[in-house]
Amino acid sequence: MLNEANVRGLTDRVSIPVLLERYPRRAGSVTLREIFRERAHTRGITKKELERRFKSLLRSAGLPRPRHNAHVAVGGRFFEVDCLWAEQRLIVELDGRAVHGTEMAFEGDRRRDRLLIAAGWRVTRVTWRQLRDEPSAVAADLRSMLVQPSA
Q1: Which long-range contacts (CB under 8 A, 24 or more apart) does 1-10 make?
Q2: Computed from CA positions of residues 74, 79, 85, 91, in that sequence, does the dihedral angle turn out positive or negative?
Q3: In principle, which of 35, 75, 90, 149 could form an S-S bond with 85, CB 3.0–4.6 Å?
Q4: Model confidence over 21-37: pLDDT tens digits?
């Protein structure tokens, strides 16, 4: 429901937190309050914290270490990527909502991914919530990507 409200632009006209205070016992209010608490928590996650969690996941899963904050040249442009496994042509971007949640960042991220993919890189994005809630799945996916030859 919250996603649909965002897509339709309704969150600018209606303050959902105010409505939750006004109607605390309405159906779905408990779930909405939890969603807003979760969003507030993940919004404050720093890049350093995200990187620390990712490095810890790699260590605990026995995965090879990437180059962090590495530069990749594509078509005369240089991009800084969060994690790079050059031999496997794999890039992992660690996405925090604070930095990657704006409209400009959203567009820029997709443009950059498109250019990197067209140049033969494999790009995947990992979020704080994925690292926190599904670390085994993230590790398994990374393991698969690291053993698959690039196309």
Answers
A1: 1/28, 1/32, 2/32, 2/35
A2: negative
A3: 90
A4: 777 778 877 777 676 66
